[in-house]
Amino acid sequence: MGNDFRESIGREQLRLVMQQVPTMQAASVVVALLLSYVVRDIVPRGKILSFVLLTLAVAASRVILYRRFLHAGTKPLVTKNWENVYLLLALLSGVVWGSSAFLILPHGDAWLLALFVLVLASLSASTTVSHSSIKWAPAAFIVPAMLFYAIRCGLDGGEHGPILAVLIVLYMIVMLQYSLKHHGTIASSIALRFENLKLLEASRQTEERFRSLSEASLEGIMVHDQGVILDANRAFAQLFGYGKPEELIGKNGPDLLLTPESRSRILQRIRQRGEGRIELTGVRKDGTTFAMETESRPMRYRGRDARIVSFQDLTDRKRDEEEKVKLQGQLQQAMKMEAIGRLAGGVAHDFNNILTVITGYCELLLQKIGKDSPMCGELEQIRQAGDRAALMTQQLLAFSRKQIIEPKVMRLDRLVTEVLAMLTRLIGEDIELQAITGKSPGSVKIDPGQFQQILMNLVVNARDAMPEGGKIVIETANVDLDEDYCALHPYVVPGRFVMLSVSDTGKGMSNEVKAHIFEPFFTTKERGSGTGLGLATAYGAVKQSGGSIEVYSEVGSGTTFKIYLPRVEGEEKTVKDARLVNLPGGAETVLLVEDEDIVRDLCSRILGNLGYRVVQARNGDEALALVMGYGERIDLLLTDVVMPGMSGRELATQLVLRHPEMKVLFMSGYTDDAIVHHGILDEGVSFIGKPYTPSALAGKVREVLDKA
User: Fold this and answer.
1) I need a surface site. Which of 15, 32, 497, 600 has the fewest CB within 10 A?
2) CA–CA distance from 528 to each of 389, 521, 524, 550 (Å)?
3) What is the pLDDT of residues 63-103, one digit of tens each?
4) Contact assessment for residue 492 and residue 486, using Cβ atoms and an 8 Å cutoff
C-alpha cells in the first residue's frame, strides 16, 4: 500500500473522529454540569468548580483542534501528528473524568457512586463508538477514567466496593476489545471505500485517455457489445456521414452501417469472436456505399466485456490501386508496342533492300522493252506489287518510329481543309463528313505527307466501323494538358498542344479490342480486307512527331480518336511539290558504299547507265582504303547509313575532312541516330529512302551534285 494511500486513509479516520467532536464535547460539558448540580449541597464548591473548569478546558481544546482541522481543508498534513495530539487530549479528558471520582463524588454514598459509574460507563460506550476510527482514542479516554473509578470503589465502596471495582475493570476490558474490533471494521471499510474510489478514478482516467486518444485519431473507433454501439469517436461518426457520435450510440451497427453481404460476414465474425483485419462495404447516412477496412480487439469497457473496432476508409487507397493497375497496364502496353516496333523496324529494313532490287530491276526492264512489249503488263503487275509492299514497309517504319520525316511548321486546320476533298471521295456518299475548324488552333511541326497518312487512316477506320452509314466529325482546337492529366497518362508531358479529334457514330469497340487497337497486324475486319497497319501507322507517326494519341469508345456508342501535337511558334511554311522529275545523267565520279551486294550492283548499274563513273566499296573500311589509293577527284559519296563496322555517317565525316569538295548522299531503309534524331532528318543532310526507283535515284543524285 503506497504512502499516499495510507495518508488518505489516515485523513479519513481523523475526519470521522473530528466530525463527532462538537457533539461529544457539548454532551460532556452538559453531563459534567448535571453531576455538579446533583452534588452541589454535598461537595465543596471549590471542588465542583475545579471539575467543571477542567472539563470545559479539555472540551475547548478539542473543539479548537476540530476547527483547525476544518481550516486545513485539502492542504497537505501529517495525519500521525494530528492523531498524537488528539490522543493526548483524549487522555486528558479521561483523566479529568476519572478525577471526578475524587473531586465531586461524596464518600459513603453508594447510590451516587452507582450513578457516577453508570454515567462514566455511558460516556465510555459513546466514546468507543464515535472514536474507534483512531485505534487508541477510546483506550486513551476509557483506561484512566475507569481505573480512577475502580480505585475509588476498591478504597471507599463499602462491602461491595471490591466487586464493583472488578466489574468496572471487566467493563473497561470489554470496551477496549470492542473498540479495537470496531476500529478494524471501520479501517477496513475506509480502505475498501478508498480502494473503490481509486479504482473509479483509474477507470475515469482510463476512459478519459481513451476518449482523448480516440477523438485525436484520424481513424474511426467504435466500441460495441454484440453489435450494439456503446461508444464511438467523432471520426467514426463522420466516416458514416453523421454529425455526432451520440446519433449512433445504442444502435445496432451491422444493421445500420453495413451492406447485407458485409453484415452477414461481420455477424459471423462477431459470433466466432474473430480478430484481424477485414474489408467490408459501409453504408453512409445518405445511402452511399464505400469500401473500408476494420480491425477489432476485445476490451473491458465500464465493467463489461466489449470489443473495440477501428475503421479506415479505403476509398482513396482503392482509387490509387486502380490507378496503379491502370498505369501498369499502360506501361506494359507501351513496352509491348516498343518491342513490336523494334521488330517491325528491323523487318522493314531488310525488306526494303529486297524491294529496292525488285522494283529497280523491274523499272529497268520496263525502260528496256518499251510499252509495246507483251511482257509490259506482267512487269507492271510486279512493279505495282512492289509499290504496295513498299507502302507496307513505310507503314511498319511509321509505327516503329523509324521512318525519316521532314517536318515543317504548319497550321493544323489548313492541313485538314486541304485533305478534306480527298477524304470525302474516300468515305462514300452514305457517310456525312463534318469538319469543325477555325477555333484559332496554333501551329504544329509535322511532316505534311505523314499527317495526311494519319488522318486518312483514322477516317478510313471510322468509315469501316459504319457499314450502314453514319457521321464522321473532324475537329481541331487548342488545349493545355496539366499535371493532373499527365499523371494518368505517363507518356504525356504537361504543356500546350493542338488537338485533332476524329469521331464516328459507328458500333464502337470493347475494352479488349481497345487494348490491342494500335498493335500492327491487329484487325477486326474480315480476313483479306485489311492489313491491320492503319492505326499502328497513325500511332507511330504521332509518337514520332512528339505527340500522343488517345481512343475513347464504348460498344454501340461510337469511337473518338484524339491526337495531341505540341503547339509551336513560327511562320507556316509552304509545301513544295515533291514529285520527282527525270533528270539527265552526268559524268561525275560517284563513290558507292553499300554492304548488300544485290543493292550495290543495281545502284551501280543505274548510275553507270546515266553516264556516271562509279567506284564501289562494300563497307566503310574498304571505302577509306580505296579513296587513299584513288588519285582522281570523287564528286559524290553515295553511302548506306547502317552497315557493319563503320556507319555511313562516320565514313562521310572522315572523307569530307580529306576532300571538302565531296558531296554526300545517304540512303537507307531504316534510321538510326547517325543522320536523324528521333526520325527527323538533320538540317542540311541529303537522303534518299529505300526502296527507291531508278528515276528517283537519278533525280536525287543530280539534285545533290547541282547543289551549291
Assistant:
1) 15
2) 15, 12, 11, 27
3) 887 787 777 755 555 567 777 777 888 888 888 888 888 88
4) yes
**Calpha distance 663→701 (Å, rounded):** 10
One-character DSSP codes across 95-159:
HHHHHHHHHTSPTT-HHHHHHHHHHHHHHHHHHHHHHTTSTTHHHHHHHHHHHHHHHHHHHHSGG
Helix (H, G, I), strand (E, B) or coil at 645: coil
CA distance 542 to 563: 7
Most confidently predicted of 17-26, 90-99, 404-413 = 90-99
- The three-state DSSP-derived secondary structure of 260-303 is HHHHHHHHHHHHHCCCEEEEEEEECCCCCEEEEEEEEEEEEECC
Torsion of CA 481, 485, 486, 489, to 10 degrees: -120
Residue 520 has pLDDT above 60, yes or no: yes
Per residue in 494-515, is it b (16+ CB within 10 Å) or e — as a string? eeebbbbbbbbbbbbbeeeeee
Stated as kind and residue range, the H or E segment containing 681 is strand 680-681
Nearest to 139 by CA among 79, 86, 101: 86
* E strands present in 512-641: 548-553, 559-568, 589-593, 613-617, 636-640
The helix/strand count (H/E) of the chain reads as 21, 19
Adjacent-strand bridge partners of 561: 502, 551
Cα dihedral 685, 690, 693, 694, rounded to 10, equals 60
Q: Which cell numbers hold the place of 547?
A: 505527340
CATH of domain 589-706: 3.40.50.2300
Q: Residues 249, 253, 255, CA angle at the centre, nearest 5°?
A: 130
Query: Quick check: 395 and 537 in contact, CB under 8 A?
Result: yes
- Residues 594 and 618: their CA atoms lie apart, in Å, by 5
- Whole-angstrom Cα distance, residue 217 to residue 237? 12
The answer to whether residues 642 and 668 touch, using CB atoms and an 8 Å cutoff, is yes
- How many whole angstroms separate alpha carbon 572 and alpha carbon 455? 20
β-partners of residue 586 are none
Task: Cell numbers for 319, please give them.
Answer: 482509387
Q: At what angle do helices 315-369 and 376-399 cross, to 10 degrees?
A: 160
Contacts of 480 (CB under 8 A, 6+ apart): 495, 496, 497
Q: Which three cell numbers stand for residue 229?
A: 454501439
Report yes or no: 283 and 289 within 8 Å, Cβ to Cβ: yes
Q: What is the CATH number of domain 322-397?
A: 1.10.287.130
- Determine which helix (DSSP H) or strand (DSSP E) holds 621, and give its type and residue range: helix 620-629
**φ, ψ at 474 (rounded to 5°):** -110, 130
Name the residue with higher pLDDT: 532 or 625: 625
Domain map of the chain by residue range? 3-198, 217-313, 322-397, 405-568, 589-706
Residue spans of alpha helices (H) in 370-466 = 376-399, 412-427, 448-464
Quick: pLDDT tens for 482-508: 887 777 776 777 888 888 889 998 888
* Secondary structure of residue 50 in the 3-state scheme: helix
Partners of 432 in beta bridges: 471
Q: Which CATH architecture has domain 405-568?
A: 2-Layer Sandwich (3.30)
Over residues 664-668, mean pLDDT = 88
Class at the top of the CATH hierarchy for domain 217-313: alpha beta
Question: What gap in Å lies between CA 115 and CA 193, rounded to an integer?
Answer: 41
